Amino acid sequence: MKIYNDYLETIKSAIERDKRGKSYFSGLSESETKFEKGIKAMELKRKVPEDKLLPSLEEFADELGVQPKFDQQLGMHPDFVHLKHTNNIEKHYIVSGFIDIKGSTRLFAKYDPETVLIITSTIQQAAIHTCLIFGGYVHRLHGDGLFVYFGGKDIDVSTAVNKALQCVSVFTYFVKNDLKKLFEEQGIDKIFTRIGIDLGYDKDVVWSMAGIGETSEITTCSLHTSLASKMQSSAESNGVVVGKNVKENLSERNNDLLSAVSIRTQDEKDRYIFRDADSGFFYTQYDFNWLQFLKRQDFIVSPPEGEVWIKRTQHRGREKNIEDLASTASLNKPYFNG
Amino acid sequence: MIYGDMDICGNMGSYWETFNIEIFVPDTYPFCVPRVWEKSQVIKRNYDFHIDKHGGCCLDIEHRLVIYKVIGMNIEEFVMKKVYPFFVNQVYRKRTGDYANGEYLHGFDGVAQYYREDLGILTSKLAMEIIQKILDNDLPERNELCICGEGKYKNCHCRSVEYLSRLPEARLKEDLVGFKKLVG
């Protein structure tokens, strides 16, 4: 999709510097090495500033007509800030998502910790930026992963569900394709995501302050937030698992994109992520075909070759060239039998 | 019936157009020729754009399509090789005024053009002779003189004749009638 190219470039230069570093710094004293490496990490970290998207992703945001807000604080969903330092509670729906990035531990075997830091934080920042583009809220960081919310006071349930699915589909495509390619070129075992998403309706989600004083956060107490986390561990590599409530809010045309996890695992016990036989409550988890979903989005074009591209209607400083079509167009010579 | 949007993209990732299309695949699949309609009306309904008033698209000369009835086809390959390039070529024409690889004339003139340009059968007389020999199963041996009389058959029109031999007999008979009309 090329929208993460600048993030990939940052990772790439960190990797390249690491290799150079190993040979170049081998003759230096420990203090000299540390000094140089410190500069290296700071320099590269500056390439991914905290408060703005890198140009390739910014262009994507422009295409979508959105301007991400960078004023979020962890554990402080802007629509429920009023609950901070109170004993009040509020019931309001939320879509919870757990995005786990797996495989980064193996990086330590190959690279210096500073390089690993740049790699993992760049991937994490790409995930955060993607979340912000789709109107999500990053609630908490989990190692390399994220715990995110979609939804709030001014957004309806099905739109929130849709945005959450768009976000994870775009990010998973990046990890499964662009990032994978880069790491394969470096001879690194794969890094992949596992994502769980679930929706809790108003009646099922209690917002309140958890913790004490400043050691606190505004968070949800909901079976469905807990299940999102559990579903993340049910997902396959680069897979997304969603709960039944998400299915209920997916448009009819997208219902074919869900299949019970038990179909994949061939194990009926994986059909439900939660069972309460006494009350007869059985909650189904589904594998979500995020790639097909992505291809159906208005902002995506998917030529028959199978790739997925962003539909670029704006062309910053580059003109479309009709000759880009010539080789495919030449395969056709039309006829009319009239 | 297969239907949906087909996005047209350039090699460098540029987006150009989206066509809403329908592909009708007969029950005889894979031994069939699917029909394609453009429903979005992006293409002007004009024969010069190789489309009829209902949006039926003329993807290629019939000889190259009808061969699927004999050898069978794969729908994905059909989309990649016939459908997608047709719509890319429509975008190309819209922007440049010409099709990237030219076009066939309408009606039987286009068939005669196909015989000339693609099969190397340059005259109507030779075309009729070849078709008749195929229908009569009276083809030369590979090392004999070609039907055109200009060289060894295997080095001359052999490949074109072999291709034509695979077409349904009805198609060949139709061509024979067409060429007869052309020469008067």
Task: Give the SSE layout.
The complex is a heterodimer of chains A (338) and B (184).
Chain A: H1 5-24, H2 30-45, H3 55-64, E1 90-91, E2 94-102, H4 113-133, E3 137-142, E4 145-150, H5 157-185, E5 192-200, E6 206-212, E7 215-221, H6 223-234, E8 239-243, H7 244-248, E9 258-260, H8 261-265, E10 272-276, E11 281-288, H9 290-295, E12 300-301, E13 309-310, H10 326-329
Parallel strand pairs in A: 5-8
Antiparallel strand pairs in A: 1-6, 2-4, 2-5, 3-4, 6-7, 8-11, 9-11, 10-11, 12-13
Helix pairs in contact in A: 1-2, 1-4, 2-4, 4-5
Chain B: E1 2-9, E2 15-24, E3 35-38, H1 62-71, H2 75-96, H3 107-117, H4 124-135, H5 158-165, H6 169-183
Task: Explain the overall architecture.
The complex is a heterodimer of chains A (338) and B (184). Chain A is an alpha+beta fold and 338 residues long. In chain A, strands 2, 3, 4, 5, 8, 9, 10 and 11 form an eight-stranded mixed beta sheet that branches. A three-stranded antiparallel beta sheet of chain A has the order 1-6-7. Residues 23-28 and 31-35 of chain A have low confidence and may be disordered. Chain A has helices spanning 5-24, 30-45, 55-64, 113-133, 157-185, 223-234, 244-248, 261-265, 290-295, 326-329, and strands at 90-91, 94-102, 137-142, 145-150, 192-200, 206-212, 215-221, 239-243, 258-260, 272-276, 281-288, 300-301, 309-310. Chain A has a single domain (5-318), classed as Alpha-Beta Plaits, CATH 3.30.70.1230. Chain B has 184 residues and is α+β, with helices and mostly antiparallel strands. Chain B is built from six helices and three strands, in the order βββαααααα. In chain B, β1 (2-9) and β2 form a beta hairpin. The longest helix of chain B is centred in the middle third of the chain and has 22 residues, at 75-96. The chains are: A alpha+beta (338), B alpha+beta (184). Chain A binds chain B through residues 2, 301-305, 309-313, 315, 320-322, 324-338, and chain B through 6-16, 18, 47, 50-52, 58-62, 76, 79-82, 84-86, 88-89, 91-92, 95-96, 99-104, 106-107, 110, 114.
